[in-house]
Amino acid sequence: MLIDTHCHLDAPEFDHDRAEVAQAALAAGVKCIVIPAVERSNFAVVKQLRDQYAHCAMALGIHPLFVDRAQPQDLAGLEQQIIKELDTGGIVAVGEIGLDFFIDNYDRERQEFYFVEQLKLARQYDLPVLLHVRRSVDQVLKYVRRFGVKGIAHAFNGSQQQAEAFIKLGFKLGFGGAMTYERALRIRKLAQTLPLDAIVLETDAPDIPPEWLGHHGRNSPDQLQEIAAVLAELRKENIAQIAAITTKNAIDILPKLADLCTSPHVPL
Hints:
Strand content: 5-15%
CATH class: Alpha Beta
Strand order of the largest sheet: 1-2-3-4-5-6-7-8
Structural class: alpha/beta
Shape: globular
């Protein structure tokens, strides 16, 4: 069994074949998919997909690339949804949240405001976080230390020292398609050398396609089996062990996944 800890199944790239994509993931051994929201306007769609597909879980949050059109009342809306979903066990994390200092003309102050407010919600309601950390690892680390939250550093591409800092704080690090490119030397070195109990698998579909799909291919959660095989090859380990340990890691850091992944409604 595999868990895709980060997949934007709600993205328009899946509008014409979403049901087939979800079924293909199951057929490929991906028994749980975590779908993170990116802004308040797509909370309902993510919830709908969680309700529609028994093997999908939901995270809610405001992504740093969407804060330019966010309003402070969206934070109140997020809190309302968290409260509502906590009663049913329907939310596994606050996310996707974080900082992105890669884009041009980013508004650092605005990003940090929404990030901090969402970290407060995660702490208040005892939820893990799914972190976006592009070109912002040190700044994100500063804030998660301050608020004492745990979760997943998604699409991790930092240094060995930064990886160790996240691990020390109780975080797991997400590895996916980027790890499959031979020239991605730093990511592959981390995948080889970090403790396996610190690693979770993800696709970030439809983004970050693995090498065999090409840079412009559409990624999908059924690719996770081959991504796991790359990790197994890099570490010289059995793929069954990779699957078992990364699945355990995902459930350990997102404990509300436990019921979903053992649900009789999800084929094993």
